[in-house]
Design goal:
The protein is α/β, with parallel strands linked by helices. The protein contains 29 helices and 14 strands.
Length: about 700
């Protein structure tokens, strides 16, 4: 014989509601009959006392279970049997929704009966008629506080208080037009509460536009030890708090929001809770609106338990208005629950107890292991190179690997290159207001330098390429905390090739190149330069960019003796720069034509110093031989003759470009006379003397190349 199919909670809840409606109809019918009988036999002055006695004699313990139909009279046995059956269902291991709501929101027995009366209007069409009969008014086809106090046992006047659960949690909607008394105003159960009592539980649709579910597809991936420790600590603190009111706000500090969201998602998952994101910009400023939203969220936290991720970091990046901070403070001060606060720096104005955690990306070794895990045997050393160059969080590593490996157009041999390119694009900093992005096109074949300087550049590129092996595998990073950044200073006059050398390095290392716009970084206002530099380094910290500080002496000048507050703040900026340039993970190049103006502390922290001297005749000849692209049609050019002009590489490029435009206008190849004409214009610009003999050319020797 088959065992009976177990009854689900939904079936039990439906049965409870059915019996509750039976009891409520019996109760209303009994009240109507008692009121009618009293009206016909009792003198008016005695009715009030009789109604009170009737309510006491037919209280909660005397409720019965048979429905009232038509004009059938209700006996005390029926009320008692209905009350007993209802009470039996409330003691089940999985209590019905109304009982859960009563316990979690602190409702009294009388308040839960009032709520049931209001919700019954949605469940049973007969209730409206019974309410009208009970109130002896055909227009009052709705519940009121006055009806509830007359109908149920042990009525309490404090149910009307805004601080009691029915009104505090907005379980009821009160329609109180004009000067109508509160006790006779129509009551209606909130739609969300009605559905909850019926067993339909969902996120309140008034919150759906504000809350964004945070469901990380990488949540099932094991966190690295450095982040798993933080998750375990937060879980213990939440579990040991004892109550939601005692749970501190978890402040997640730092600029890496994806890592913070992943850690919060793992913490919420460990607690068995969904996680929702709420940007603090959507918190309303008016106190009344903020209070309404706060109570709605707190009520929802009881009906649909969840953890809330408060995103303040995005607002901070956009110069958050003070009202946002005030709204956040008030919201947290009047809330209880599990909150993760995403912020750059620790906030002291949270309005309640909080604990702070510095959230960073996984360590380089952990990133190496993550790349190993997602790439598998096909990597061929790719994981080490990617972890050594780029500083990525776990979601980004998984996303880049999934996208690249899933591409059907990618062949096995090109996977490392595609992965590298994807990392460069992902780590490309958002520096539009502080820096100019340069597309590097120059290669080693294009640059002309003396051999010692050229070898220094190649050493610089080699150190960037092999720093993972030296720092990690060979133990240098474990032995020292400072001095691991790779940087260089390019010193020399304008036009000697400093920018081209930066392009060569960026092209060879396959990195994005950014020229720092000093006019946007340096500010006359105290503290603004430091703030701009912080944004600059933070944005470029992931390692996919080469920062090129042109005219670096404007930023990295010598510290001065402190004579006033401006000197003090200027020195603070330089000290901050010293720390960031030393800790910067990417490649930073400082270019200057005033090497002696740089602070000596910077010189100690510079790994390479490359001198770009004025070009000699051999270098100038080599530059002239390479300056015209292969596609440019030229006549026979005397490079030895052109090399005699005392011009630097930048000036030579100007002359070549201007000569090409002259040739295009004349519809001829680039000829020596056209180059001479362009060179004369360059000499005038440089305010140098012009000797006509130096610019004479015999046209008969020209042959189109």
């Amino acid at each position: 014989m088959k065992s009976p199919k177990p009854i689900s909670w939904q079936q039990q809840n439906d049965e409870y509601l059915r019996k509750a409606l039976v009891w409520l109809r019996l109760r209303l019918t009994w009240f109507i009959e008692q009121s009618a009988g009293a009206a016909s036999t009792i003198q008016p002055e005695s009715r009030s006392a009789q109604q009170k006695a009737s309510r006491r004699s037919s209280g909660r313990d005397n409720r019965q279970a048979q429905p009232a139909t038509g004009t059938d009279s209700v006996s005390e046995k029926q009320l008692a049997r209905a009350a007993e059956e209802l009470a039996a269902l409330e003691t089940l291991d999985q209590p019905p929704a109304l009982v859960v709501l009563r316990r979690n929101l602190g409702l009294s027995q009388f308040e839960s009966e009032v709520l049931l009366l209001c919700a019954a209007m949605e469940f049973d069409t007969r209730m409206a008629s019974l309410c009208a009969q009970a109130q002896d008014d055909v227009t009052r086809r709705h519940p009121t506080f006055a009806l509830a106090m007359a109908l149920f046992a042990e009525p309490a006047w404090d149910v009307l208080s805004p601080e009691r659960p029915l009104r505090y949690w907005r379980l009821l909607e009160i329609n109180q037009p004009g000067a109508q008394p509160l006790t006779t105003s129509a009551l209606r159960a909130d739609e969300r509460i009605v559905n909850y009592l019926k067993g339909l539980n969902y996120l309140d649709d008034r919150l759906v536009p504000l809350l964004l579910p945070l469901r990380h597809r990488d949540r099932t991936v094991d966190l690295p030890p450095s982040q798993r420790t933080i998750v375990d600590t937060m879980v213990r603190q939440i579990q040991n708090a004892g109550s939601l009111q005692a749970v501190p706000v978890m402040q997640l500090l730092g600029p890496d929001s994806p890592s913070k969201q992943l850690i919060a998602a793992h913490t919420a998952a460990a607690l068995g809770l969904p996680l929702y994101r709420l940007p603090i910009e959507v918190l309303p400023s008016p106190p009344s609106e903020l209070e309404q939203l706060t109570r709605l969220l707190m009520r929802e936290g009881v009906l649909w338990p969840f953890a809330l991720y408060l995103d303040a970091y995005e607002a901070e990046k956009g110069s958050v208005h003070e009202t946002h901070g005030a709204a956040l403070h008030r919201f947290l001060a009047r809330s209880s629950g599990i909150f993760f606060l995403d912020t750059q720096d620790r906030r002291m104005d949270t309005g309640r107890a909080s604990v702070a955690f510095d959230i960073g990306k996984p360590t380089q070794a952990e990133q190496h292991l993550a790349w190993d895990a997602v790439l598998g045997p096909r990597q061929n050393g790719t994981a080490a190179r990617l972890a050594g160059q780029f500083n990525l969080n776990l979601p980004t590593i998984h996303q880049i690997a999934r996208t690249t490996l899933a591409s059907s157009a990618v062949g096995q041999q090109s996977i490392p290159q595609k992965l590298w390119e994807a990392c460069v694009v992902d780590t490309r900093p958002r520096l539009d207001q502080l820096a100019q992005r340069i597309e590097p096109k120059a290669s080693w074949e294009d640059i002309v330098l003396p051999d010692p300087e050229l070898q220094l550049l190649r050493q610089l590129a080699a150190q960037v390429a092999h720093r993972t092996r030296v720092y990690g595998d060979w133990g240098f990073a474990a032995k020292r905390a400072r001095g691991l950044s790779i940087n260089a200073m390019f010193a020399g006059e304008s036009g000697t090739g400093k920018t081209m050398a930066a392009e060569v390095l960026a092209n060879d290392l396959r990195l994005s190149l950014y020229r720092i716009d000093l006019s946007a970084v340096v500010s006359k206002y105290i503290g603004e330069t430091e703030k701009n530099l912080r944004r600059l380094f933070d944005a470029a910290e992931d390692g996919g960019a080469l920062l090129f500080f042109d005219e670096a002496d404007a930023l990295f000048g010598k510290r001065s003796e402190v004579k006033d507050s401006h000197d003090r703040y200027a020195n603070i900026e330089i000290n901050y720069l010293l720390q960031r340039i030393e800790a910067y993970r990417g490649l930073a190049i400082l270019a200057t034509n005033r090497k002696g103006a740089l602070d000596s502390a910077f010189m100690r922290r510079i790994r390479f110093v490359v001198e770009f001297r004025a070009h000699g005749v051999p270098e100038r000849k080599a530059i002239w031989e390479r300056v015209f692209p292969r596609e440019t049609q030229t006549a026979t050019l005397d490079f030895d003759r052109l090399a005699r002009f005392n011009l630097n590489g930048g000036n030579i490029n100007n002359v070549a470009m201007n000569a090409a435009f002259l040739a295009a206008d004349a519809r001829t190849p680039v000829t020596m006379p056209l180059i001479f004409k362009a060179a004369q214009a360059e000499f005038r610009k440089l305010e140098r003397p012009i000797y006509e003999a130096d610019f004479h050319w015999d046209d008969e020797t020209e042959v189109v190349a």
